[in-house]
Design brief:
The mean pLDDT is about 85. Strands 1-2-3 form a 3-stranded antiparallel sheet. It is an alpha+beta fold. Helix content is about 55%, strand content about 25%. The protein has one domain. InterPro entries: TadE-like_dom. This is Pilus assembly protein.
């Protein structure tokens, strides 16, 4: 019996032992991607919302236009828990809050939210 024959199957055993760690690493990396994507979506939604808010008349029309524009490009998985708020006069601001999904968007969300904020000077109408 040679030394090589004594180690036969060792790589398979080591791989089986490492498989849970490899899978856990992949799951954590995917979750980090979802958190980052949620931050990107919140920032973009706030930009779109403030852009629509500066073009709308102050008051309820501004809030409605702002909210609709902030939600327009969000997929259903993020739109459900989204909160869009606009305010200001002269300098319009938009705040967007989105829930971070756990592994699969649309199923379960973490109990914390990601916030996006944007501001722009109100357009002057002639």
């Amino acid at each position: 019996m040679t030394r090589r024959d004594a180690d036969e199957g060792q790589v398979s055993i080591e791989f089986l032992g490492m498989t849970p760690l490899i899978l856990l690493t992949l799951v954590l990396m995917w979750q980090a991607v979802l958190v980052g994507y949620t931050f990107t979506l919140a920032g973009n939604a706030a930009d779109e919302a403030v852009r629509a808010g500066t073009a709308a008349a102050p008051g309820g029309a501004r809030q409605a236009a702002c909210s609709a524009a902030g939600r327009k490009d969000l997929s259903a998985a993020w739109r459900g828990g989204a909160a869009v708020r606009c305010g200001g006069s002269g300098y319009v601001t938009a705040d967007v809050s989105l829930k971070v999904p756990v592994l699969f968007p649309g199923l379960v969300s973490f109990p914390f939210t990601v916030h996006g904020h944007a501001g722009a000077v109100e357009e002057v109408k002639d």
